[in-house]
């Protein structure tokens, strides 16, 4: 089978027609083809207030800004964060997040005269840096703390950073326009020449 | 006049995983009418692989675990690296089909619950046992002597390898015999650097391709690997060996196979008059309806634990302690390989090269301790091998990096400046009478079948070996020129039993019917028409991954069973 034949075959397998054609062969316990499912972030979210959305977007963009490649807002990260906080967080984590976001909404205007999203880039950066400094004791920053799903009592700044980084690099924009992505390489070459500044391959499985 | 007995089928195979698929293929190809019973759901090849090639942005929570679902329904299975939203439909639902986790000692039992079983998610590592492995029990007195030698099984290894397709490299080592290999997968540049240094600085170490049941050359109906990476999500091009890609299509092609999914075998019925198994009692997992099927010969391929559970639950007047258990050894001598002990080394060389495509296997360092003779500097018997993996890392491994903005984005996006060479030891486990599977006296599953429980402890030999894994791993990383190396794993508290997913033993074979359940043909000593050919027949564990050996013994047992049937001896 060559690449073209394979892709045709794969296209049939993952197309909507295949689902209806083979639906009878699949039990009710089995789910839809993920490759043809809607994006996770295609769902509506109704968890943050309009003001909070602006703050979250500004934080996400400060963490991963648009440079010569797309940034967090281009990749829909603020919406991903809202969905994850609403759907994926447990109550304890959600409380920490909401507390943190509320604090941003009241403390920042009090100290700086304007909401976070209206401040200059430099001010936004120094605010987040100060928050990270204050949180630096959290086990979230520990060296080996990578192969795990989550640190449940991580402070707000860690929560939003993790969701931003995760949401960005697993998004279609992040994975295909910032990282390298190829679902059907057809060969392996362990000597592929590396160009200066080359970005890594988007990973295909995820720590849990 | 004696009435001729009629049977529903010539043969019944219980289980459709790695060995059940082989039993189905062999028996069907030899002309028998075969019924295959699978407790799990149907899993059509290709169209059932719902998560194959799915990008991260399509996954629930963009690839973060489905925490509520996993905690509630998959508390055991979700501990495994291979478990994900992309293949959740392959796995056993721990809530629906539990085992008695709070009896005995902790044991992680990873199970499929579909046609094809764990052949869909297995690690695909494919190694022959050596002559020394088959002689080890007789030599050092642990366990009972194997009734089969390397010479007996070697032709069956070849037979299986040619059919399943194994890529690998011949090395001429007595402790890891070469097989019938397709061309090996290419290497990373850094792996070649490491090998060159080991050849010079540690000549006792062989670094070779992991021998893997993934095609590098097309076989009929199956395509060479397309290097997408995560085999465990299923492969619609049939590039790795699974029952779906290989054995079940061959069995189907004969027209002799009937495959029933959702068919939970409750027990086997023993006929006192004939001294044979007469039928199986089956419960439909969906409707709970009961049905029986008769046959001339029965093959148990329900996995090590599953087959032993079935034999224990088929106790009857003649066999009050479990079917075919006159020896009293049924359920005992459970083994698994310990893993999770090893050394990771960081390398700064070969920064001018990266990689293209995802090679779905690593390299292998075959056993080098106590080979042919006991090493003077070891305080354990037998040995271990290293499975290795190269990683250059990505954003996920640096997700908690401090800082913000363009600098952080740059750090997380770009190829990290080191290669990591992971070496994980897989150690041989001695057969011990105390390590066992047993039936809970109080807990039953939703079909009324007693749940299994485990009692398992690693021996001092495995703990001593684990320490050596670390020190030798450090030596190898140093010899390979690692800039930095770090040993991992707790040698006092070895990996959770079961976590190696190489559970084997519990219905061991041997020449002595007083000490073993099966004879050298995987046939029950006590019951001539009962064959058990999954991992439960194993009398020792070697240190290599066991699936190839299960397949070879299955094919050999089928050949013997059909010969015996034709001769009228069964």
Q: Can you tell me the residue ranges of chain A where pLDDT is under 50 for at least 5 consecutive residues? A: 3-30
Count the beta strands of chain A: 1
The SS-based structural class of chain A is mainly alpha
Q: How many domains comprise the coordinates of chain B?
A: 2
What is the straight-line distance between the termini of chain B? Answer: 21 Å
CA-atom Rg of chain A in angstroms? 21 Å
CATH topology of the largest domain in chain B: FAD/NAD(P)-binding domain
Helix fraction of chain A, binned, reads: 40-55%
What does this structure look like?
The complex is a heterodimer of chains A (208) and B (570). Chain A folds into 2 domains: 3-36, no CATH class; 40-178, no CATH class. Helix content of chain A is 49%, strand content 2%. Chain A has 8 helices and 1 strand; from the N terminus they run ααααααααβ. Chain A has helices spanning 3-14, 16-22, 50-63, 77-87, 91-112, 121-134, 156-169, 172-178, and one strand at residues 189-193. In chain A, helix 3 (50-63) packs across helix 6 (121-134) and helix 5 (91-112) crosses helix 7 (156-169). Chain A starts with a helix and ends in a 15-residue tail after the last strand. Mean pLDDT of chain A is 86; it is low at 3-30. In chain B, a hairpin with a 5-residue loop joins strand 6 and strand 7. Chain B is α/β, with parallel strands linked by helices and 570 residues long. Chain B starts with 8 loop residues before the first strand and ends with a helix. In chain B, helix 1 runs parallel beside helix 6 (243-253), helix 1 (18-29) packs parallel to helix 10 (547-566) and helix 4 (150-164) crosses helix 10 (547-566). In chain B, strands 1, 2, 4, 5, 6, 7 and 16 form a 7-stranded mixed sheet that branches. A 6-stranded antiparallel sheet of chain B has the order 3-10-11-12-8-15, with helices on one face. Chain B folds into 2 domains: 1-165 and 241-335 and 432-454 and 503-570, FAD/NAD(P)-binding domain; 172-230 and 338-427 and 459-493. Chain B has helices spanning 18-29, 67-73, 131-140, 150-164, 189-201, 243-253, 304-313, 406-413, 460-479, 547-566; strands at residues 9-14, 34-37, 208-209, 257-260, 263-271, 276-284, 290-300, 338-347, 353-356, 363-365, 384-391, 419-427, 436-444, 450-455, 484-488, 530-532.
């Amino acid at each position: 089978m060559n690449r073209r034949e394979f892709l045709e075959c794969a296209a049939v397998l993952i197309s909507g027609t295949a689902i209806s054609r083979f639906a009878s062969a699949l039990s009710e316990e089995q789910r839809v083809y993920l490759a043809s499912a809607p994006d996770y972030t295609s769902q509506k979210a109704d968890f943050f207030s309009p003001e909070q959305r602006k703050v979250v977007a500004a934080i996400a963009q400060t963490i991963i800004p648009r440079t010569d490649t797309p940034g967090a807002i281009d990749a829909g990260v603020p919406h991903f964060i809202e969905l994850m906080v609403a759907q994926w967080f447990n109550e304890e984590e959600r409380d920490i997040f909401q507390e943190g976001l509320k604090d941003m909404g009241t403390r920042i205007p009090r100290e700086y005269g304007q909401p976070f999203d209206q401040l200059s880039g430099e001010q936004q950066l120094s605010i987040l840096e100060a928050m990270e400094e204050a949180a630096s004791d959290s086990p979230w920053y520990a060296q080996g703390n990578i192969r795990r799903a989550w640190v449940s009592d991580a402070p707000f700044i860690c929560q939003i950073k993790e969701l931003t980084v995760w949401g960005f690099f697993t998004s279609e924009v992040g994975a295909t326009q910032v990282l390298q992505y190829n679902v059907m390489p057809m060969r392996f070459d362990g000597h592929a020449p590396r160009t200066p500044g080359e970005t890594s391959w988007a990973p295909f499985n995820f720590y849990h | 006049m004696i009435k001729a007995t009629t049977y529903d089928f010539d043969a019944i195979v219980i289980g459709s995983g790695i060995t059940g698929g082989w039993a189905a293929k062999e028996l069907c190809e030899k002309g028998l009418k075969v019924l295959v019973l699978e407790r799990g759901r149907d899993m059509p090849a290709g169209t059932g692989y719902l998560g194959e090639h799915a990008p991260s942005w399509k996954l629930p929570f963009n690839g973060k675990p489905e925490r509520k679902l996993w905690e509630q329904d998959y508390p055991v299975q979700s501990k495994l690296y291979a478990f994900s939203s992309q293949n959740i439909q392959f796995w056993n639902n721990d809530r629906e089909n539990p085992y008695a986790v709070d009896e005995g000692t902790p044991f992680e039992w990873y199970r499929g619950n579909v046609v094809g079983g764990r052949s869909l998610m297995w690690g695909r590592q494919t190694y022959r046992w050596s002559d020394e492995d088959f002689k080890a029990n007789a030599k050092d007195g642990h366990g009972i002597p194997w009734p089969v030698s390397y010479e007996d099984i070697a032709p069956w290894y070849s037979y299986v390898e040619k059919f399943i397709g194994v890529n690998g490299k011949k090395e001429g080592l007595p402790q890891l015999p070469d097989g019938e290999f397709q061309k090996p997968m290419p290497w990373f540049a850094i792996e070649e650097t490491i090998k060159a240094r080991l050849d010079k600085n540690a000549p006792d170490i062989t670094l070779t391709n992991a021998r893997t049941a993934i095609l590098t050359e097309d076989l009929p109906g199956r395509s060479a690997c397309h290097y997408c990476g995560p085999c465990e999500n299923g492969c619609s091009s049939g590039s790795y060996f699974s029952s779906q890609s290989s054995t079940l299509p061959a069995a189907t092609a004969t027209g002799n196979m009937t495959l029933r999914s959702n068919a939970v075998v409750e027990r086997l019925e023993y006929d006192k008059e004939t001294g044979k198994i007469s039928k199986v009692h089956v419960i439909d997992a969906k409707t709970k309806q009961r049905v029986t099927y008769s046959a001339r010969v029965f093959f148990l391929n329900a996995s090590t634990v599953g087959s032993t559970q079935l034999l224990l639950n088929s106790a009857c007047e003649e066999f009050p302690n479990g079917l075919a258990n006159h020896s009293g050894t049924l359920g005992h001598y459970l083994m698994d390989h310990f893993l999770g002990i090893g050394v990771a080394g960081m390398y700064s060389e070969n920064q001018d090269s990266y990689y293209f495509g995802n090679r779905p296997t690593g390299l292998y360092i075959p056993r080098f301790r106590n080979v042919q003779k006991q090493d003077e500097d070891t305080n354990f018997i037998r040995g271990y091998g290293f499975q290795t993996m190269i990683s250059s890392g990505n954003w996920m491994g640096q997700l908690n990096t401090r800082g913000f903005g363009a600098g952080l984005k740059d750090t997380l996006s770009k190829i990290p400046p080191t290669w990591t060479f992971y070496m994980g030891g897989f150690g041989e486990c001695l057969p011990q009478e105390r390590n066992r599977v047993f039936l809970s006296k109080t807990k039953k599953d939703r079909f009324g079948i007693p749940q299994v429980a485990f009692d398992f402890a690693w021996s001092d030999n495995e703990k001593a070996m684990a320490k050596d894994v670390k020190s030798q791993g450090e030596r190898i990383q140093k010899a390979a020129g690692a800039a930095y190396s770090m040993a991992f794993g707790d040698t006092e508290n070895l990996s959770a039993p079961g976590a190696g997913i190489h559970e084997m033993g519990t219905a061991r074979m041997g020449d002595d019917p007083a000490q073993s359940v099966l004879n050298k043909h995987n046939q029950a000593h006590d019951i001539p028409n009962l064959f058990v050919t999954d991992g439960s027949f194993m009398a020792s564990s070697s240190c290599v991954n066991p699936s190839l050996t299960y397949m070879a013994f299955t094919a050999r047992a089928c050949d013997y069973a059909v010969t015996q049937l034709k001769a009228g001896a069964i």
